[in-house]
Amino acid sequence: MLEKLNYPILVAPMPTPFTKDDKVNLEAIENNSKKWINSDLSGFVMGTENGEETLLSSEEKLDIFKVVANTLKNKKILIAGVDNPSISGTLNESNKYADLGADLIRIRIPRRRNTIDKYFKEVLNNISKPVLIIHQMSPGGFDSSMTTEGANPDQIGRFCDNDNVFGYIASHLVRFEMMTRKYVDKSKQFWVPNAMLMPTMSLEGANGGCFMLGNIAPKICRKIMKLCIEKNFVEAKKLNDKLVDLDWAILSRGAAGIKYALDLLGFEGGNPRKPQNSLSENDKKSISEALKKSGIKEVE
Fold first, then answer.
1. Does some domain include residue 256?
2. Residue 174 structural domain
């Protein structure tokens, strides 16, 4: 699938619908996946903070991936999210997803900084699929995940030099990532982590994206990134400005926010898994108004 890609690449962290009795709704996941087939989205990451990964068992994550793979294999990039500080655990999980059809394995930088050189040396030399490294140190925290550095810029560059690394998903720390970009070879993918940062990070050489808003606005987001790559930053900024309120309204409310936006666009989002809070009526109104203001009426 990676050989068939149209650039720039935009993938989205897929939300997880649940039934009324709080079980993973595999039927809804299949239905949503079918609706995304004809969209401009390049692919999906399963096993993310957006997908409520910390509230899912390892078996549930595999079941979700299996359903999505059966629906989207050879149509979209399938990326499995792995967050495991153990070398053997990371490799075992990755092998399971590879067997189910994963094109890439997305790996978080482990939170123990004194272990990461050994971790990446062994994992990258033994993993069965190409790797996306993500710099996201507080998964599940949304806003708080934007504030912590997990490695030095030159370390990240060394990790990305490995032949098994497909690319890198940056953090929201723009100043930090400007330095990191100097160390990540231009042959590698360097992805924006948030729609609001597309023009800013593209100035420093970002060439793709992985973010929540990709679930509902892939066409306009890919257009913005394409304009940025073509150095047409004025037009890119005009389009991006239309998305700022929507991105803020959704991201500020976490998984519940993107799920409600999907509900409004005819997908099956539903409530987040307990004990996470559902949206208030004021929250829903804010998202609905921001969606209307953005001009997005369907996922395309």
1. no
2. 2-233
How many other C-beta atoms are found inside a 10 Å radius of the C-beta of residue 143? Answer: 11
Residue 223, in any domain of the structure:
yes
**CB distance 24 to 64 below 8 Å:** yes
pTM over 0.90: yes
90 vs 45, 169, 241, CA distance in Å? 16, 18, 39
Per-residue pLDDT tens for 21-48?
A: 999 999 999 999 999 999 999 999 999 9
Q: DSSP labels for 214-259?
A: GGT-HHHHHHHHHHHHTT-HHHHHHHHHTTHHHHHHHHTTHHHHHH
The residue type at 147: T
Provide the CATH number for the domain around residue 119.
3.20.20.70
Beta pairing partners, 190: 168
Domains contained in the chain, number: 1
For 61, the token pair is 């994550």
pLDDT tens digits along 89-128: 999 999 999 999 999 999 999 988 899 999 999 999 999 9
Residue 147 has pLDDT above 60, yes or no: no
CA 172, CA 186: separation in Å to the nearest integer?
A: 20
Cα separation, 65 vs 79, in Å, equals: 9
Let me know: does 74 contact 43? Beta carbons within 8 Å: no
Residue 299 burial (C-beta neighbours within 10 Å; 0-12, 13-18, 19+): buried
Residue 21 lies in a domain: yes
Phi, psi torsion values for 289, nearest 5 degrees: -65, -40
The amino acid occupying position 119 is Y
Whole-number Å distance between alpha carbons of 201 and 219: 19
Is residue 212 assigned to a domain?
A: yes
Residue in the block written with tokens 């079980």: 23
The number of angstroms, rounded, from the C-alpha of 127 to the middle of its chain's C-alpha atoms is 21
